[in-house]
């Protein structure tokens, strides 16, 4: 398994990111009441499309699709609409403590730094979305709550990526470049976060 680089000029003209939760719903056959079991291990799904291309540019996209070898190889993707957080946290933030299986973490940053709901952060290959606005205290410590839970053990002192945080994704669609006289129409992709 290899990590394939995005081709130069990879700029989606449509993009969506959604969370796939690993859960089961059980309904009582008598009362109809329901109970939900959340098994954790959520993953991100991305759908995107590339605009029409000239033949020479379409060949690059065709080679990228072939290099992914279906679901064999991965590609590092990020939230193409919110590449940087809306909050003010910048610089070199780091994890302040060790965390596992939780939906929050403490980060060391600059005093007064903020994160906003919907901001994307990356830690140890995980792509995390901020659930609630938060502000760092006077010591530069901020507790950030996420919509997804940590799937792996996170050590203290790890860098927190705020500028285009990525995670590895696998191609899960049958994407292909179609050629018609003069150009290649838009190509659509569906990716699932590789766990």
Oligomer: single chain
Count of domain modules: 2
Q: In one word, what is the shape?
A: globular
Order of helices and strands: EEEEHEEEEEEEEEE
Helix fraction bin: under 10%
Question: What's the N-to-C terminus distance?
Answer: 13 Å
Mean pLDDT: 92
* Count of helical stretches: 1
Helical/strand content category:
mainly beta
Quote the beta fraction.
25-35%
- How large, in whole angstroms, is the Cα Rg? 20 Å
Q: In order across it, which strands form the biggest sheet? A: 1-4-14-13-5
Q: What is the number of strand segments? A: 14
* Main sheet summary: 5 strands, antiparallel
pLDDT < 50 runs, ≥5 residues: none
Model description:
The two termini are 13 Å apart. The chain contains 1 helix and 14 strands, in the order ββββαββββββββββ. The strands form 5 sheets. Strands 1-4-14-13-5 form a 5-stranded antiparallel β-sheet, with no helix packed on it. Helices cover 7% and strands 33% of the residues. Strand 9 (120-123) and strand 10 form a beta hairpin. The chain is mostly beta strands. The protein has one helix at 55-68; strands spanning 14-20, 23-27, 34-38, 43-50, 74-77, 94-95, 104-108, 114-115, 120-123, 126-129, 134-135, 141-145, 167-171, 187-193. The chain folds into 2 domains: 14-78 and 167-193, no CATH class; 82-165, Elongation Factor Tu (Ef-tu), domain 3, CATH 2.40.30. The mean pLDDT is 92.
């Amino acid at each position: 398994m290899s990590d394939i680089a995005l081709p130069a000029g990879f700029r989606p003209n449509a993009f969506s990111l959604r969370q796939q939760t690993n859960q089961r719903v059980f309904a009582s056959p008598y009362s109809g009441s329901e109970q939900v079991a959340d098994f954790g291990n959520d993953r991100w799904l991305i759908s995107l499309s590339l605009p029409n291309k000239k033949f020479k540019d379409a060949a690059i996209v065709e080679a990228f699709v072939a290099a992914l070898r279906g679901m064999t190889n991965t590609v590092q993707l990020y939230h193409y609409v919110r590449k940087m957080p809306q909050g003010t946290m910048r610089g070199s933030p780091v994890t302040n403590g060790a965390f596992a299986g939780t939906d929050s973490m403490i980060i060391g940053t600059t005093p007064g730094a903020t994160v906003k709901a919907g901001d994307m952060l990356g830690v140890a290959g995980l792509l995390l979305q901020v659930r609630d606005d938060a502000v760092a205290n006077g010591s530069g410590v901020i507790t950030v709550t996420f919509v997804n839970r940590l799937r792996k053990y996170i050590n203290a002192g790890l860098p927190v990526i705020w500028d285009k945080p990525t995670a590895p994704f696998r191609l899960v669609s049958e994407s292909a470049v179609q050629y018609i006289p003069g150009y290649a129409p838009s190509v659509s992709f569906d990716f699932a976060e590789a766990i």
